[in-house]
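Support request, please re-run this one:
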Amino acid sequence: MLASPEMTHSGPKLLLHVEGAVVLVAAVFAYAKLGASWGYFALLFFVPDISMVAYAAGTRAGAWSYNAAHTYFGPALLAVVAYAAQYAGLLSVAVVWIAHIGFDRLLGYGLKYPSNFKDTHLHRV
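Re-run finished. Output below.
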């Protein structure tokens, strides 16, 4: 069920935005500690949004693709594999991916429902 208009400025929604900001800032600090190129950060930052192309195949496919690229499971798994393999370049990609998700949450872009691109777990965009 989507939030009613009265709920759109509620405490939980605000907390989710703040949480996104915290994740974004933490990821930027982690990226800085890795010493990776900021040019690569800028180049990779919006790559997860390519997943929206799947909306051309319909809202169900689009929502599935978007959600797959905008949950923390993918970059967390990538980070674990990269860390275990001691591959800093891949770890940097995972951190940029996490930063992107945090940025989206900060702006209020949530995971998508298959009903409509604008229907998210945070609210209707």
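The radius of gyration is 15 Å. The chain has one domain: 10-120.
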